[in-house]
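User: Could you check the structure of this?
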Amino acid sequence: MTFIKQFSIILIASIICINSFAQEKIACHVEEYVNTVNPHASARKTRTGVILVGSVDTVRAFNGFGTTKANAIAYAECANLYKRTFGDTVNIYLTAIPTAVAFYCPDEAKKWTNSQADALNIMFEALDPGVIPVDVYTILGQHAHEPIYSRTDHHWAPLGAYYAAMAFAEAAYVPFKDLSHYEEVVIPNYVGTMHMYSKDNSVKNSPEDFVYYKPMDIDYTTTYITYSLGNNRKSITRESAPRQGDFFLSFKGVSSYCTFMGGDSKITQVRTATDNGRRLIIIKDSFGNAIPGYLFYSFEEIHVIDYRYFNKNLKEYVSQHGITDILLANNISFACNVKAPNAYKRFLEQ
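Assistant: Sure, the predicted structure tokens are below.
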């Protein structure tokens, strides 16, 4: 059998599998992660409420997590609304990205945070048939001993996004390449945003490496529409014409996470050499910025939209670009914030 025939059979089978989801509810339940990395570590709270764990050159800083059942359900309802809106022509996926406290909170600090597993299970249970849940919590827990979260920044590390992208690719029935197909880039002496948020010099004195991965041996073109923002950094005052640029940019220091697309206030479109007819929109916050670079082998096109900065009608955008897949991918704190669901609803009406 030729490669083309084999690929066609795989693609047809994938489409059949995904379309069958429209007729059924996909069960997804996550088990609470048991901390085996630093369960007995000492912890303290800064005056700004940040939790600090460890000492000397291994300090880890993160925020606690809290939400309500209603807020978790509201995020799931957005995915349900999108499925009702786009029907069987577009696959809708929902994930909520855990934050570091889910995996690195010592036993003595658990009183300062709530269970992210519980919130995820509430979301997944509230999904309608046809919406595809993506469990990234479990795979991240399996790799918690690896540097999947930055110690000094509020984001996850690019390695964490790699494992999350792997889980999504499996749910979407698309190809996925392991890290042997990527160039590793290391930015040393990185101290991220948690020094600013914690106001604690122990974070500043505990630098780490910022490590990211660039796909090799695949052609792709990145196009940006960039927004200019008002003084409050919320309102869009104008947008640029589409222009081509690099997906991976040169940032160092506290801004190293901006390596991916240079930040949030833009629409990004990546056209790849992957010829499979699958065109994806990722709607996200800054956590989602690290995901697309692992999907160039998986999708023909990838569009990246930040839930805070999008001024077009999503129904028209999906039709115009022939979108086949939409992934809602917010970090769990933003997912459980009323601003995200309100934005997702607005996209269908504006």
